[in-house]
Amino acid sequence: MRQSNYFVPTLREVPNDAEIVSHQLLLRAGFMRQNASGIYSYLPLGFIVLRKIEEIIRDEMNKAGAQELLMPAIQPAELWHETGRWKLYGPELMRLKDRHNRDFALGATHEELITSLVRDEINSYKKMPVLLYQIQTKYRDEKRPRFGLLRGREFIMKDAYSFDSSEEGLDKVYNVMVETYKAIFNRCKLNFRPVVADSGAIGGKDTHEFMALSEVGEDTIAYSSESDFAANVEMAPVLDVYEASEEEQKELQLVEDPESQRESLEKNRIHYTFFETDDKCVCLLTSNEHVVNEIKVKHYFDANHVKPLTVEEAAEKLNVSLHDLSLFNKEIEIYADNAIKAVANGSLTDSTGKSYVNVNPDRDFNIAAYADFRMIQEGDPSPDGQGEIVFARGIEIGQVFKLGTRYSETMNATFLDENGKSKPILMGCYGIGVSRVLATVVEQHHDEKGIVWPVSLSPFLVHLISVNSKNEAQKELSEKLYSIIQNEAIDVLYDDRSERAGVKFSDSDLIGIPIRIIVGKKANEGIVEVKIRKTGESFEVPVNSIIEVIRQQLKILD
């Protein structure tokens, strides 16, 4: 492709609203342009990279036995009403009406639609397993689109759905998808970790997120310093290493003047929180240096949602007075984090506002159960017993879910087993943010000059630059090389523009193609300069060996 008539509108300055590197570089290098908040057009360079990501995804998904289809972006609201997600999904779901005043949604995800397709066609265990996928634009009305392609209102996604007749079958395809995702992200040259995660509004129980390590990530990963353990910080379990203290219990004491005994009140301080879990009100105790984990609370009580309550709201929910809401009221059921087991002669400011020392939870409270209710912290022992927990920021680039019968039961997607008994289909779903992968690769592969594309995703493999297009020797050799490289089926971008050499080199660094071939002063000697974008290494090469050198360097870089 000749750059003189190729649509690559590069920018010298960083756009004011571009906060992170990938957003800045993709705009500056002419890979995309913003049309509205969270909505982008992919220009030719960006479109090529997207297609390369999609090709890798298709290749690995097809190897895994998946079948590609394409579903509509516009979905009838009736399907979402069947699962209850029309209301549950919230304001992020883009809704619209047609001319007949019928409700539709722009697809944020396709669980309902794919389930409706399968329930009409698969009615026997003999027709399963089935694994279907699509690559399509999705829509979510983000309250605050930010970070370019990392959080937009329109994005490209690969979503896959599996259908099985047994738990064993679902487990098998789930594990196959985990390995498939590893292969995809490795081919995209991403530094990532699969982590245990929460399923959120999608539903289901078992799920893993694939997190690319990056300082601009919106999620925190907790991982072991010595093993492969990794989990979203909200899902990482905390080892129960706590034992009851052997310290002699002292008599509970009301602190008349909290200011004068501030030091005593900080010792082994107990923190409490009231929560509403669906229609139940519970009180949770944690150590003051720990933070209660609402996701763990939700899972422990098998609740659809949890909400912290003020003491006034808790009293109303429990139908007691504020005075009777005291944690020392044995009528109030209390749950405690495992760390509370080790508290002896602790301190507490009760829900009534009174402060106490020599608090011993087992003696003084009605503890219904101890469990893991807190957020894991750096330095905690790794849940697998190997090493300590370390935190890192991550960008979610993919997620796999075991949905089970969450959708098949509510939408009546059933099959007849080998005994002729009707059962709900077991489902899984598996997503990759294609456009998010594009941005994440740039976050991990760049330097101060611009993007540094890995070979597998680069829009072109070779950037051929004629230093002086008015010099006949340089022009003639450049044209000859352009023809030779094209004939070898090597993707090449030929900068034949009438621009200064500095502009050409700057644009080349910005765009980030792996190999640069510079036709300059030694053109009349049949010698060109080869420069490797990733390392900055450069060396002179005679024209008659250029293809051999290109292939050798691509092999090294791959």
Automatic annotation (TrEMBL):
<dbReference type="InterPro" id="IPR006195">
    <property type="entry name" value="aa-tRNA-synth_II"/>
</dbReference>
<dbReference type="InterPro" id="IPR033730">
    <property type="entry name" value="ProRS_core_prok"/>
</dbReference>
<keyword id="KW-0648">Protein biosynthesis</keyword>
<dbReference type="GO" id="GO:0005524">
    <property type="term" value="F:ATP binding"/>
</dbReference>
<dbReference type="InterPro" id="IPR045864">
    <property type="entry name" value="aa-tRNA-synth_II/BPL/LPL"/>
</dbReference>
<dbReference type="InterPro" id="IPR002314">
    <property type="entry name" value="aa-tRNA-synt_IIb"/>
</dbReference>
<dbReference type="InterPro" id="IPR036754">
    <property type="entry name" value="YbaK/aa-tRNA-synt-asso_dom_sf"/>
</dbReference>
<protein>
    <recommendedName>
        <fullName>Proline--tRNA ligase</fullName>
        <ecNumber>6.1.1.15</ecNumber>
    </recommendedName>
</protein>
<dbReference type="GO" id="GO:0004827">
    <property type="term" value="F:proline-tRNA ligase activity"/>
</dbReference>
<keyword id="KW-0547">Nucleotide-binding</keyword>
<comment type="function">
    <text>Catalyzes the attachment of proline to tRNA(Pro) in a two-step reaction: proline is first activated by ATP to form Pro-AMP and then transferred to the acceptor end of tRNA(Pro). As ProRS can inadvertently accommodate and process non-cognate amino acids such as alanine and cysteine, to avoid such errors it has two additional distinct editing activities against alanine. One activity is designated as 'pretransfer' editing and involves the tRNA(Pro)-independent hydrolysis of activated Ala-AMP.</text>
</comment>
<dbReference type="Pfam" id="PF03129">
    <property type="entry name" value="HGTP_anticodon"/>
</dbReference>
<dbReference type="GO" id="GO:0002161">
    <property type="term" value="F:aminoacyl-tRNA deacylase activity"/>
</dbReference>
<comment type="similarity">
    <text>Belongs to the class-II aminoacyl-tRNA synthetase family. ProS type 1 subfamily.</text>
</comment>
<keyword id="KW-0030">Aminoacyl-tRNA synthetase</keyword>
<dbReference type="InterPro" id="IPR023717">
    <property type="entry name" value="Pro-tRNA-Synthase_IIa_type1"/>
</dbReference>
<keyword id="KW-0963">Cytoplasm</keyword>
<dbReference type="InterPro" id="IPR004500">
    <property type="entry name" value="Pro-tRNA-synth_IIa_bac-type"/>
</dbReference>
<dbReference type="InterPro" id="IPR004154">
    <property type="entry name" value="Anticodon-bd"/>
</dbReference>
<dbReference type="InterPro" id="IPR044140">
    <property type="entry name" value="ProRS_anticodon_short"/>
</dbReference>
<keyword id="KW-0436">Ligase</keyword>
<keyword id="KW-0067">ATP-binding</keyword>
<dbReference type="InterPro" id="IPR002316">
    <property type="entry name" value="Pro-tRNA-ligase_IIa"/>
</dbReference>
<dbReference type="GO" id="GO:0016740">
    <property type="term" value="F:transferase activity"/>
</dbReference>
<dbReference type="InterPro" id="IPR036621">
    <property type="entry name" value="Anticodon-bd_dom_sf"/>
</dbReference>
<feature type="domain" description="Aminoacyl-transfer RNA synthetases class-II family profile">
    <location>
        <begin position="38"/>
        <end position="454"/>
    </location>
</feature>
<dbReference type="GO" id="GO:0005829">
    <property type="term" value="C:cytosol"/>
</dbReference>
<dbReference type="GO" id="GO:0006433">
    <property type="term" value="P:prolyl-tRNA aminoacylation"/>
</dbReference>
<comment type="subunit">
    <text>Homodimer.</text>
</comment>
<dbReference type="InterPro" id="IPR050062">
    <property type="entry name" value="Pro-tRNA_synthetase"/>
</dbReference>
<dbReference type="GO" id="GO:0140096">
    <property type="term" value="F:catalytic activity, acting on a protein"/>
</dbReference>
<dbReference type="Pfam" id="PF00587">
    <property type="entry name" value="tRNA-synt_2b"/>
</dbReference>
